[in-house]
Amino acid sequence: MTEAEFKEALAEFTTKTADELLMSDDLSELGVDSIAVYEFVMKIEDVVGRQDIEVTDTVSNLQDLYDRVLEAAEQHA
């Protein structure tokens, strides 16, 4: 999954468009709470297949979440 695809998928859970999202954006400032993260992860798994994406309290911005998606994809490659 590319960064652009990631932003496009996440944009529906935020107040910004994919083009406006920065990887340094804080998830909570975008209105992305734990429920939105869960729904987002489910959407990503529908697109790329079940990946067991691990999201912990240390995930606070887009880059952290994107890194978790990439780590899960690498483990299943």
TrEMBL record:
Gene3D superfamilies named in the record: ACP-like
Pfam families to which the protein is assigned, alphabetical: PP-binding
Domain Carrier: 1-77
Matches recorded under InterPro entries: ACP-like_sf, PP-bd_ACP
Coiled coil: none
Protein name: Phosphopantetheine binding protein
Organism this protein belongs to: Stackebrandtia endophytica
Organism ancestry: Bacteria, Bacillati, Actinomycetota, Actinomycetes, Glycomycetales
